[in-house]
Write a structure and sequence with these properties.
With 409 residues, this protein is mainly β. The chain contains three helices and 18 strands.
C-alpha cells in the first residue's frame, strides 16, 4: 500500500481515538478531590485509576474497531470486443477499510484506501497516485441532530468517479414531523495538478425543509446554489464561470397500493465566462405508482419543461409522458417494460421535434439455490425521432441484447 495513503488512513484512526479519549476525560479520577463522605486517597493511588480508565477505553475501542480488506470488480462498460480485455484488467481494485464507533454509538468514523491492482505485464498501477482513491468520513448522532464530514479523492486512472476530489459537510435537525437539513459541498478535478489541463472547482450549497406526518401528505421545500469557476488554464485556454439558483417543491402521498407525487422546480442559470448568457427553467411534474396485482407495478409520469433564454429571447416547451411496468411472477422471473413520448418546440421555430422510445427486458434467474447462479436476460429497445423543423427528417434505432451472467464462484 502506498505510504501516503496509509498515512492518511492512520491519521483518521488517530483522530477518532482522540475524540474518544476526550469523551472519557470528563470522568472523575480517584485521585481528585473527595466527595461528601469519602476519604482522601494519596496522590500516588491515582495511577491505578488512570490505568483502569485507559484500559476500559482501549477495550471499548477494540470492540468497536474494524479493519477489512477486499478485492472488488466493477461493472464493465466496453461496447467493443477490442476494448474488453483492457477494461477487465483495469476493473480490479484492492480496498482497505477501517471503521470505529465511539461515544456509545453517537460518533462513527470510517476510512478507506483503494488502489488498482498492478498491471501483470508492466507492474505499474498500484503505487501511483493516479491509480488510488482515499476516503474519510465522520458521522455524529444526537437526540435531535445528525451531522457529518467527508472527504474523497481519486486519481484519473481509478475505476469509479476518477480524477475528482470532493469534501462536504452537512447537518440535520429533526423535531417532531419537521426536518431541516443544510449541506455544503466542494469538488474539483485535475487532482494531480496537470499543467496541460484546466481545473474546474464547484461549490454547492443547499438547505431543505421536510414536513412528514404519518397518514398525511409529505411536503418538501429546498433551495440550492451552485457556483463553478475554472483555474490553471493552459496557454490559449478560455476561462469559464457559471452559477445557478434552484428552488424545489414537492407534495407526495403514500398509500398501501399506490403513491402520488406533485413536484415543481425553478432554476436560474447564468454563464459569465467565456460569454454572457442567462436562462430560466421551470419544470412541472406528476408521477405515481400503482400495484394492481401481487408482483405487478405500474409507474406513470407526466412532465412539462419550459425554458426561457434571456440572452436570445426564445422560449422552448417540452412536454413528456412516460409509463413503465415491472412484473415479477416468481423470484426467478422478472419482466420490465417502458415507453415515453415527448414533444419539443421553440418560439423561433428552430426546434420542433417528436420523440418516441420503448424498452423491454425479460430476465430468468436459473439455479438460484446452487453455488453457481446463472441469469439469462433478453433486452430490446426502439427509439424514433422526427425533426419537423427540417422537413420531417426522421431517425430510428432498433437494438437487441442477450446477456448471460454467472456468479457464485
Amino acid at each position: 500500500m502506498p505510504a501516503r495513503s496509509l498515512r492518511s488512513l492512520l491519521i483518521l484512526t488517530g483522530c477518532i481515538l482522540v475524540l474518544g479519549s476526550t469523551a472519557v476525560a470528563g470522568q472523575p479520577f480517584e485521585g481528585s478531590a473527595p466527595g461528601p463522605g469519602q476519604a482522601a486517597q494519596p496522590f500516588g493511588a491515582s495511577s491505578s485509576s488512570h490505568s483502569s480508565v485507559l484500559g476500559n477505553l482501549f477495550a471499548d475501542i477494540g470492540n468497536s474497531f474494524r479493519l477489512t480488506t477486499s478485492t472488488q470488480t466493477h461493472h464493465l462498460t466496453a461496447t467493443h470486443a477490442k476494448d474488453l480485455w483492457r477494461e477487465i484488467d483495469d476493473q480490479h481494485t484492492v480496498q482497505v477499510k477501517t471503521a470505529a464507533t465511539l461515544l456509545p454509538g453517537m460518533l462513527t468514523g470510517e476510512g478507506e484506501v483503494s488502489y488498482r491492482e498492478a498491471d501483470g505485464n508492466t507492474f505499474k498501477g498500484s503505487g501511483e497516485p493516479q491509480d488510488q482513491m482515499v476516503r474519510m468520513a465522520i458521522t455524529g448522532t444526537g437526540s435531535m441532530i445528525r451531522y457529518g464530514l467527508s472527504y474523497r479523492s481519486a486519481g484519473k486512472n481509478y475505476a469509479k468517479d476518477a480524477d475528482q476530489t470532493t469534501r462536504d459537510m452537512w447537518g440535520e435537525w429533526r423535531m417532531g414531523f419537521a426536518t431541516v437539513k443544510a449541506s455544503l459541498k466542494e469538488s474539483w478535478n485535475n487532482v494531480a495538478h496537470d499543467p496541460s489541463q484546466p481545473r474546474l472547482r464547484q461549490l454547492q450549497e443547499n438547505v431543505a425543509l421536510t414536513l412528514a406526518q404519518s397518514a398525511w401528505p409529505a411536503l418538501a421545500l429546498s433551495y440550492g446554489r451552485t457556483a463553478a469557476a475554472s483555474a490553471m488554464e493552459p496557454d490559449g485556454g478560455a476561462a469559464t464561470r457559471t452559477g445557478s439558483d434552484t428552488v424545489d417543491a414537492s407534495l407526495s402521498y403514500m398509500a398501501p397500493t399506490w403513491t402520488a407525487k406533485l413536484a415543481s422546480t425553478y432554476s436560474h442559470n447564468r454563464t459569465q465566462l467565456p460569454a454572457m448568457s442567462e436562462t430560466e427553467q421551470i419544470l412541472y411534474g406528476i408521477s405515481g405508482s400503482y400495484l394492481p396485482l401481487t408482483g405487478l407495478s405500474l409507474d406513470p409520469s407526466l412532465t412539462l419543461k419550459e425554458e426561457v433564454s434571456r440572452s436570445v429571447g426564445t422560449r422552448t416547451e417540452s412536454p413528456t409522458a412516460a409509463l413503465s411496468m415491472k412484473y415479477q411472477a416468481t423470484p426467478a422471473f422478472i419482466w420490465t417494460a417502458g415507453g415515453s413520448y415527448g414533444i419539443s418546440h421553440s418560439s423561433d421555430g428552430l426546434t420542433n421535434a417528436r420523440s418516441f422510445s420503448a424498452k423491454n427486458a425479460v430476465t430468468w434467474k436459473a439455479l438460484p439455490h446452487s453455488m453457481l447462479r446463472t441469469a439469462f436476460s433478453l433486452e430490446t429497445g426502439f427509439q424514433r425521432t422526427t425533426d419537423r423543423a427540417n422537413g420531417d427528417r426522421a431517425t430510428s434505432d432498433l437494438s437487441a441484447l442477450f446477456r448471460l451472467q454467472i456468479a457464485g464462484f
